[in-house]
Design brief:
Layout (H helix, E strand, L loop, with lengths): L2 H12 L6 H4 L12 H4 L4 H7 L6 E4 L6 H11 L3 E6 L5 H18 L3 E6 L6 H13 L2 E7 L3 H4 L2 H5 L2 E4 L5 H13 L11 E2 L1 H11 L3 H12 L7 E2 L1 H8 L11 H15 L3 H13 L4 H16 L5 H16 L4 H14 L5 H15 L59
Parallel strand pairs: 1-4, 1-5, 2-3, 3-4, 6-7
Helix pairs in contact: 6-7, 10-11, 10-12, 11-12, 11-13, 12-13, 14-15, 14-16, 15-18, 16-17, 16-18, 17-18
């Protein structure tokens, strides 16, 4: 799509053309963008680069509805460049080469640069990505790729090295609510002429269920607005119908946030996988931060399962890493897997108790010195017994300070693998 076509679409939208609300509400300036403060604050290097009109090739990574396409268009707008958009799901190598050839001619004949935007760049094959290199390297096109995946794994190294990678974040609840209010009051491109209101509960539920996706939130508002008459109010019931599911009653900023995560942790500690799954998906459906959930499972793996099943920590950490690697909704499998594993694992808090004992002894003996035979260089002096020189690679010698020589800090619970025989 050319820049001329995009401007025409915007003019048509302002004239009342039947475009989706999300398309009509697409920001036309950097000032209209919400969120991404880490990238677009007034004094940021990236904002200065964009407004300078001298863009560089970049890869925009982030979740759906976070503003990747909009940002690419605004880069072209500030550079007064021709804008071409291709989708990696349908464009061929031939299409890419044609755009690059046209861009070269445009630059040589009209002195006009071309911004080539490729959505879902992670779906491009190696050959398709390689076809971009000549145009990017020669400066015939400014390449902007968008992806929901980690570009380090999905984009060829030669292309990755020629582009600046920018990570966009999901929109915050307040950002989504701001967009909703703008859509309901904007008479030019929104639905302000209908004079609709929305209850505070309904507004917050849209923001929760949108999960940081501006497009999803605006689509829901458009559907909900079709259910009410002009001048009336959009309620939670209308939002439920728009999303085609009942709203989960959950306030991420209030008591429910703490109550539900508490129920989730206590269900896993109490070895109830059914309750653990219920509370896990209550949080996920309500738009709770999945990284917060993953962190809590990592803590529980050591705090409540501990040495009874040392593999629990590996599973919890793997789930947290899977969330980073694939994102939602796919990471739902890994999070559920970990929740069931932790709930059904044998439990031991011997590590937790040992932490308490260790801290108490440290506080009581701040002056404790390292025994002479454990100090640096002691082996060469003959005082330290090297464990691997003895049967079983174990040797009986003092390791604690003199004042604590006979102290016991770690006591196995006898649960699962947490026993002297199990280690």
């Amino acid at each position: 799509m050319s820049q001329r076509d995009l401007f025409a679409d915007q003019r048509a939208a302002r004239a009342g053309a039947a475009q989706p609300l999300a398309a009509r509400m697409r920001p036309r300036t950097l000032e209209e963008m919400v969120g991404q403060v880490h990238l677009l604050s007034t004094d940021s290097a990236i904002r200065r680069l964009i407004t300078s009109g001298s863009p560089v090739s970049m890869i925009l990574t982030g979740p759906p509805g976070s503003g990747k396409t909009t940002l690419a268009f605004l880069v072209a707008q500030h550079a007064r460049a021709h804008f071409e958009a291709l989708s990696a799901t349908s464009a061929s190598v031939r299409d890419v080469r044609q755009v690059i050839n046209d861009a070269r001619s445009r630059l040589e004949e009209e002195d006009v640069r071309t911004v080539l935007f490729i959505d879902e760049i992670h779906r491009f094959s190696k050959n398709q990505q390689d076809a971009l290199l000549p145009g990017v390297e020669s400066g015939w096109v400014v390449f902007i790729g968008a992806t929901t995946e980690n570009p380090s794994f999905e984009v060829n190294r030669p292309l990755l090295s020629r582009a600046t990678t920018l990570k966009l974040e999901p929109l915050a609840l307040d950002d989504i609510e701001h967009l909703i209010d703008r859509a309901l009051t904007d008479e030019e491109v929104g639905i302000g002429k209908r004079n609709l209101k929305i209850t505070s509960d309904a507004r917050r539920e849209v923001a929760n269920m949108a999960n940081g996706d501006a497009r999803r939130a605006l689509n829901a508002i458009e559907l909900a607005s079709a259910l009410v008459r002009d001048g009336s109010e959009i309620t939670v019931g209308h939002i439920e119908e728009a999303f085609q599911r009942r709203v989960v009653r959950y306030d991420k900023g209030g008591d429910q946030h703490y109550d539900v995560i508490s129920a989730f942790i206590k269900s896993m500690r109490g070895s109830d996988p059914d309750a653990a799954l219920f509370w896990l998906h209550t949080m996920l459906e309500a738009g709770e931060d999945p990284e917060f959930i993953a962190r809590r499972m990592v803590v529980l793996a050591s705090e409540d399962v501990g040495m009874a099943d040392a593999g629990a920590l590996t599973v919890a950490v793997a789930a947290a890493q899977a969330l980073q690697f694939v994102g939602l909704p796919e990471a739902t499998y890994a999070l559920s897997h970990a929740a069931v594993y932790l709930a059904t694992a044998p439990k031991s808090n011997s590590v937790t108790k040992a932490i308490t004992r260790a801290r108490e002894l440290v506080a009581l003996h701040p002056e404790a010195n390292v025994p002479a035979h454990l100090r640096s260089g002691s082996r060469s002096e003959g005082g330290y017994k090297y464990a691997h020189d003895y049967p079983g690679h174990i040797v009986d010698q003092q390791y604690l300070p003199d004042a604590l020589e006979n102290s016991t800090i770690f006591v196995p619970s006898g649960q699962g693998d947490d026993s002297q025989e199990g280690r």
